[in-house]
Amino acid sequence: MKLLVIEDDAKTAAYLHQGLSEHGFIVDTVAGGDDGLHLALTGRYNLIILDILLPQRDGWSVLTELRRHEVQAPILMLTAQDAVPNRVKGLELGADDYLVKPFAFSELLAHVRALLRRGPSRQPEILNLADLQVDLLRHRAQRGGTKLDLTPQEFALLSLLIRHTGEVLSRTLIAEQVWDINFHSDTNVVDVAIRRLRRKVDEPFETRLIHTVRGVGYVLETR
């Protein structure tokens, strides 16, 4: 799942990026309100974490514009202000949840997972294909009842493939979604990552699920 963090404090942004990435999320971070609004409107995010006090435009304005453009991703507001009117304002403008700084990362992670479970853009928590099962929220995968020992990056790659079962994904799209939006797809990092994932997901089992479409990319499906 892909998250956007709009937070101008560099330490907080780095803290969130590292913690959420370690739990298997794909995370983009941006410091300014205008830049954050642009990414939120043009990207495909499952959830947005939005600070209120931002340069360029504040979080209230970003929130208002996102809902005006009918962006359906759940929005978690972050603020150092614990006043009830601020919380009410955020909820009335379309925020889904509210977290006051300072906060424990475990608390933020619980809020994120709860929003993803009930958010309007959520997918099923557990996806299945043949004997492969992927738990998107708990970041666990198993095949034939055997737990797959995946790195966070491998899990992100497998999650992308199973969320698009039967759809051929180009190397460029995979690189953009799993690594970075500015990733240069002329390297073989996608092919290397697919080979490593196949060793864990396919090679120990009789039926192959990850297939190469020559000249295009990769697809997860039964054949």
UniProtKB/TrEMBL annotation:
<dbReference type="InterPro" id="IPR011006">
    <property type="entry name" value="CheY-like_superfamily"/>
</dbReference>
<dbReference type="GO" id="GO:0006355">
    <property type="term" value="P:regulation of DNA-templated transcription"/>
</dbReference>
<keyword id="KW-0804">Transcription</keyword>
<protein>
    <submittedName>
        <fullName>Transcriptional regulator</fullName>
    </submittedName>
</protein>
<dbReference type="GO" id="GO:0000156">
    <property type="term" value="F:phosphorelay response regulator activity"/>
</dbReference>
<dbReference type="GO" id="GO:0000976">
    <property type="term" value="F:transcription cis-regulatory region binding"/>
</dbReference>
<dbReference type="GO" id="GO:0032993">
    <property type="term" value="C:protein-DNA complex"/>
</dbReference>
<dbReference type="InterPro" id="IPR036388">
    <property type="entry name" value="WH-like_DNA-bd_sf"/>
</dbReference>
<keyword id="KW-0238">DNA-binding</keyword>
<keyword id="KW-0805">Transcription regulation</keyword>
<feature type="domain" description="OmpR/PhoB-type">
    <location>
        <begin position="124"/>
        <end position="222"/>
    </location>
</feature>
<dbReference type="Pfam" id="PF00486">
    <property type="entry name" value="Trans_reg_C"/>
</dbReference>
<feature type="domain" description="Response regulatory">
    <location>
        <begin position="2"/>
        <end position="116"/>
    </location>
</feature>
<keyword id="KW-0902">Two-component regulatory system</keyword>
<dbReference type="GO" id="GO:0005829">
    <property type="term" value="C:cytosol"/>
</dbReference>
<dbReference type="Pfam" id="PF00072">
    <property type="entry name" value="Response_reg"/>
</dbReference>
<feature type="DNA-binding region" description="OmpR/PhoB-type">
    <location>
        <begin position="124"/>
        <end position="222"/>
    </location>
</feature>
<dbReference type="InterPro" id="IPR001867">
    <property type="entry name" value="OmpR/PhoB-type_DNA-bd"/>
</dbReference>
<dbReference type="InterPro" id="IPR006291">
    <property type="entry name" value="CusR-like"/>
</dbReference>
<keyword id="KW-0597">Phosphoprotein</keyword>
<dbReference type="InterPro" id="IPR001789">
    <property type="entry name" value="Sig_transdc_resp-reg_receiver"/>
</dbReference>
<dbReference type="InterPro" id="IPR039420">
    <property type="entry name" value="WalR-like"/>
</dbReference>
<feature type="modified residue" description="4-aspartylphosphate">
    <location>
        <position position="51"/>
    </location>
</feature>
